[in-house]
Write a structure and sequence with these properties.
Family: Belongs to the TrhO family.
Protein name: tRNA uridine(34) hydroxylase
Largest sheet: 5 strands, mixed
InterPro entries: Rhodanese-like_dom, Rhodanese-like_dom_sf, TrhO, TRHO_N
Strand content: 25-35%
Distance between the termini: 30 Å
Number of helices: 7
Catalytic activity: uridine(34) in tRNA + AH2 + O2 = 5-hydroxyuridine(34) in tRNA + A + H2O
Number of domains: 2
Oligomer: single chain
Radius of gyration: 18 Å
GO molecular function, one term: oxidoreductase activity, acting on paired donors, with incorporation or reduction of molecular oxygen
CATH architecture of the largest domain: 3-Layer(aba) Sandwich
Number of strands: 14
Helix content: 25-40%
Structural class: alpha/beta
CATH class of the largest domain: Alpha Beta
Order of helices and strands: EHEEHEEEHEHEHEHEHEEEE
Strand order of the largest sheet: 4-1-3-2-5
CATH topology of the largest domain: Oxidized Rhodanese, domain 1
Length: 250
């Protein structure tokens, strides 16, 4: 039976994150879900798989159920399918950040830049002088990226700070950022805005939402999109790609 996979995140204050770990773990176990959820005082991030009806119940609980009290109503989600179980077990973890960057010094709940809908992304890419930046790790970039994007050569996402620090906001560059699902872009965008960059754009929903939304014939994407589960990579329409060797993970 195919498995429904949901990649999700939301930056929102969760001062009680430590007290949410156990009840969320029990709730997910009760639905026979597998995957990983990360909780921090800044929000939630994760990828979870299970039967379609279980994923529906899980998302309903996060958005409007009593566990979170409606604090995740604007949850960013991407749904896809896996032909075999992409995870072995369910893990709910407490972390300092839901995406490791600078120990919480950057506030992603404020100004992160201007979100751009996937259907408007191609028009933005045609803007003269645009600096298009892939905020993902270099092994992810090697599997696929947007045509014309800069690869900062990041070994880890936190290295983006050094890349950004070498740019001069006085030059007023027009910068567009993208990542897998949108979460890293929001952190990177918040960092750039805090340093005084005015023209920052983010691909809303990330590469996954673009591949889901934009027809392949109109796409500026080249290659496949790395995902952090047993499927390794997805293509247009979020179709599973099983033709990448294990070395692609290194």
């Amino acid at each position: 039976m195919p498995h429904t996979v949901v990649a999700l995140y939301r930056f929102t204050p969760l001062p009680d994150a430590d007290r949410l770990v156990a009840p969320l773990q029990a709730f997910c176990d009760g639905l026979a879900l597998t995957g990983t959820l990360l909780l921090a005082r800044e929000g939630i991030n994760g990828t979870v798989a299970g039967e379609a009806v279980a994923i529906d119940a899980f998302l309903a609980e996060l958005r409007t159920g009593p566990l979170l009290g409606g604090r995740l109503d604007g949850l960013e989600c991407k749904l896809s399918r896996a032909d075999s179980p992409p995870f072995r077990r369910m893990k709910v973890k407490l972390k300092p950040e839901i995406v490791t960057f600078d120990a919480g010094a950057t506030d992603p709940t404020g100004d992160v830049g201007a979100p751009v809908a996937p259907e408007d992304w191609n028009a933005l890419l045609d803007r003269p002088g645009l600096v298009l930046v892939d905020t993902r790790n270099r092994f992810e970039v090697a599997l696929g990226t947007f045509h014309g994007a800069e690869d900062p050569g990041l070994a880890r996402f936190s290295d983006f700070r050094a890349y950004a620090d070498a740019l001069d906001p006085a030059d007023e560059p027009d910068i567009a950022l993208f990542c897998t699902g949108g979460i890293r872009c929001e952190k990177a965008g918040a960092y750039l805005k805090a340093r005084g960059f005015r023209n920052v754009h983010l691909l809303r929903g990330g590469i996954l939402k673009y591949l889901e939304t934009v027809p392949e014939a109109e796409s500026r994407w080249r290659g496949d999109c790395f995902v952090f589960d047993g499927r390794i990579a997805l293509g247009h329409g979020l179709e599973e790609r099983g033709d990448h060797p294990p070395e692609a993970l290194r």
